[in-house]
Each structure stands twice: as C-alpha cells, then as structure tokens.
Amino acid sequence: MSRISKIENKGMVVTSVFYAIVGVLFLALLLLNDFAPHLGLLAVFSLGAAYGLLTKRTWSLWLVVILFTSGTAFAAFMIYSALMNDLTISLIMIAYLVLTWVCTIYVVAKREVLKS
Predict the structure, then answer these.
(1) What span, in angstroms and rounded, lies between the C-alpha atoms of 86 and 109?
(2) Euclidean distance between the first and the last CA atom of the chain, given in angstroms as a whole number
(3) Number of domains comprising the chain
(4) Is it the case that residue 1 has pLDDT exceeding 70?
(5) pLDDT tens, 38-89?
(6) In a domain, 114, yes or no
(7) pTM
(8) Does some domain include residue 113?
(9) Residue 7 in contact with residue 53, Cβ under 8 Å?
C-alpha cells in the first residue's frame, strides 16, 4: 500500500497544502513588494491554517474563517483594481478566490475532524 492510500482524510491534506502554497506565495510577494503588510498577515495566517489543518487543531477553523473574509476582500480589491489593466492578475485572483471559498466550505463541513 502506498502512503497516499493510508491517509485518513485526503481533503484536509489537500486543503492544508493549498493554504501552505498560498502562504509561501504571499511571503514571496511580500519580499518583491516594497511595503505590503497585508501580504505578510495573509501569509502568516495561511501558514498557520495549513499547520493547524494538517495537525487537526480546532483553532484552525477560526484561521480559515479569518482567511475567508480577509482573502475575499483582498481578492475582490485586486480583481477590481487590475481588471482593466492586467487580465492575468485578475484570473489568478479569481482562481484564488474560488479555491478559498471551496476550501472554507470544505473545512466548515468537515469541522468534526478537527475535534481532536
């Protein structure tokens, strides 16, 4: 048997990998921009949520909800401001927005798994 088939809850692992990738990307964007504290905050919350979901901590649900609200506001602002100028950024932000919503809905639906 492979390691992947032994994982109990593959959805939580995929969700935590999504938040980890987003956190690393936001940290990279933070280094590329002059001063963007909101990217640093989103990166820290995303990496914290990834760790919490992977280790099945109950507080990770709160981080996911915080990321849902702040990530939605961030993505909506970026889509609005870049819509006419840069289609690539708008499409990336739409994908981030949709994946954030899907991951949040999944975590809220499976929150019993986090009661460890």
Answers:
(1) 35
(2) 26
(3) 1
(4) no
(5) 888 999 999 999 999 999 999 999 999 999 999 999 999 888 887 778 888 8
(6) no
(7) 0.86
(8) no
(9) no
DSSP string covering the chain: --HHHH-S-HHHHHHHHHHHHHHHHHHHHHHHSSS-HHHHHHHHHHHHHHHHHHTT-TTHHHHHHHHHHHHHHHHHHHHHHHTTT-HHHHHHHHHHHHHHHHHHHHHHHTGGGG--
* 33 falls within a domain: yes
Residue 13 tokens, joined? 């692992």
Task: Tell me whether residue 116 is in a domain.
Answer: no
> Domain range holding 87?
9-108
- Euclidean distance between CA atoms 98 and 65, whole angstroms: 14
Burial (0-12, 13-18, 19+ Cβ within 10 Å), 52: buried
> Tens digits of per-residue pLDDT, 22-41?
999 999 888 887 778 888 89
